[in-house]
TrEMBL record, chain A:
Keywords: ATP-binding, Nucleotide-binding. PANTHER family: ABC TRANSPORT SYSTEM ATP-BINDING PROTEIN, ATP-BINDING CASSETTE, SUB-FAMILY H, MEMBER 1. Residues 2-203 form the ABC transporter domain. Pfam families: ABC_tran. Coiled coil: none annotated. The keyword Coiled coil does not apply. This is ABC-type multidrug transport system ATPase subunit. The keyword Oxidoreductase does not apply.
UniProtKB/TrEMBL annotation, chain B:
The keyword Membrane applies. It comes from Nocardiopsis terrae. The chain crosses the membrane at residues 20-42, 63-84, 104-126, 138-162, 222-242. Keywords: Membrane, Transmembrane, Transmembrane helix. This is ABC-2 family transporter protein.
């Protein structure tokens, strides 16, 4: 469960968020759309704890999985080395879930490959796996399918639907019109505040 | 402990994969020492060793070698630490935010600094010893180690705010060259200006010179050099700790998965 109430954030004189509120219940898929520079990424960084809001309240129940917009990986390390690093961070004894996700996203053959030598799309797949491998209760995904081919894009939405069915709350930043029918709730970020559209269960 | 071991292993792996630094170390050190031995005069030169307040007479090519290898060690370790910290900055922050013990990450960086300084200094001391015998080879190694560690810490510090690798590398090159030139016994035989004391490489140069030509080790110079390492190291690693401090939203159970 994620609850956000009246969050404000400014960078110098530029007020990016002016009282943003939203809610994502277990099993709910929430989309956030907005023009470039509208503050979508700033909001997600606040929700993940990466950035502090100037004011407002963010409440999260359970662990968060945050997939940043651009892959944050180490180019000198291999895919497997990334998994081992994050297993320590998440206190995971096994990598079964990470391996299963890698299989689903179709890059199991790159375990021993350094990230430096991966394509942009494969880096993004790894970025996504690193944010999901500890089975978080709340997922914050910032345009997580950038660079994916069509098949992987569809597989991403399959995984999202499964996670929803398992009761995970998912917030995804999207700018693609054809994603809209997959969402339960759509928030449009304009001038630092939300306009909400209740889409029902259109999936 | 496991977190420290994993972070250290991968940090050292990352360091070893810095091909440019490895090639410069392996090839340039012997080439430089051989060139100096071949080109620079073997006539004796006299200079004041400030920290022990003694006059030292040494062969010109030996004094030149000391200045150049200290310069190279400082530059190499500074460059290696800057690039390692710069390339992994966002990744380290992500790891820390998802719950990786920050102390383990910080200790891994310190281990990387010590290992890089010790290795580069050891290799350089070995090549120097093939050409001429220092009075105290261990002290010569220690002096080079101190110079490497000081500039390694400066590299970590510069990685905090310099946006590009080129800028960091340029700053480290300029700093080490100026530092070395101002206190080089041949260029500045008396080196009696107090400002020289403030150079990050001063302590290291004093220890190197003592190790090469005397039977003493100036402890104050050792401490002075360690002071530079400590100041820049504390600022750099303190900034890392501050940047990754917990801003977890209320009600979160366990670390977030960034």
């Amino acid at each position: 469960m994620l609850r956000v109430a009246d969050v404000h954030k400014a960078f110098g004189p530029r007020r990016v968020l002016r009282g943003v509120s939203l809610r994502a219940a277990p099993g709910e898929l929430v989309g956030i759309v907005g023009e470039n520079g509208a503050g979508k990424t700033t909001l997600l960084r606040i929700l993940s704890g990466e950035l502090a809001p100037d004011s407002g309240r963010v409440q999260v129940e359970g662990r968060i999985g945050y997939c940043p917009q651009h892959p944050v990986t180490n180019p000198e390390l291999t895919v497997d080395q990334h998994l081992r690093y994050f297993a320590v961070a998440y206190r995971l004894r096994r990598l079964d879930r990470a391996r299963a996700l890698i299989d689903r996203l179709g890059f199991e053959q790159y375990g021993a490959t350094r990230v430096r030598h991966l394509s942009g799309g494969t880096r993004q797949k790894l970025n996504l796996v690193l944010s999901l491998m500890h089975d978080p209760a709340v997922l914050l995904l910032d345009e997580p399918y950038q660079g994916f081919d069509w098949e992987t894009y569809l597989r991403f939405w399959e995984i999202s639907a499964e996670l929803q069915a398992q009761g995970r709350a998912i917030v995804v930043i999207s700018h693609l019109a054809h994603d809209v029918d997959r969402l339960d709730t759509l928030y449009q970020l304009r001038a630092g505040t939300f306009e909400q559209s209740d889409l029902g269960s259109g999936r | 402990m496991n977190a420290y071991l994993v972070a250290t292993r991968y940090s050292l792996l990352e360091l070893a994969r810095n091909r440019l630094a490895v090639v410069v170390l392996v090839c340039l050190v012997p080439l430089l020492i051989w060139l100096i031995d071949s080109v620079v005069t073997g006539e004796p030169v006299e200079f004041v060793h400030r920290s022990t307040d003694t006059r030292i007479q040494a062969l010109g090519h030996q004094v030149t070698t000391l200045g150049c290898v200290l310069n190279l060690v400082s530059l190499l370790v500074g460059f290696a630490m800057f690039t390692a910290a710069h390339r992994s900055a966002d990744f380290d922050r992500r790891l820390a935010r998802v719950g990786y013990p920050r102390t383990a990450l910080i200790l891994a960086k310190l281990t990387m600094l010590v290992v890089a300084s010790a290795t580069v200094s050891g290799y350089t001391t070995a090549w120097t010893s093939l050409h001429w015998a220092a009075e105290q080879p261990l002290a010569l190694w220690a002096g080079l180690f101190l110079g490497g560690a000081a500039y390694g810490a400066i590299g970590l510090f510069l990685a905090l705010f310099l946006p590009e690798e080129l800028e960091g590398t340029f700053v480290i090159i300029v700093a080490t060259v100026v530092d070395n030139a101002l206190q080089n016994p041949i260029i500045n035989p008396t080196a009696d200006a107090d400002a020289v004391l403030l150079l990050p490489g001063y302590g290291a140069m004093q220890v190197c010179t003592a190790g090469a030509f005397t039977d003493t080790v100036p402890l104050t110079s050792v401490l002075l050099s360690l002071g530079w390492t400590a100041v820049f190291g504390v600022v750099a690693l303190g900034a890392f700790a501050a940047r990754t401090r917990d801003r977890t939203p209320q009600g979160v159970c366990g670390p977030p998965g960034i």
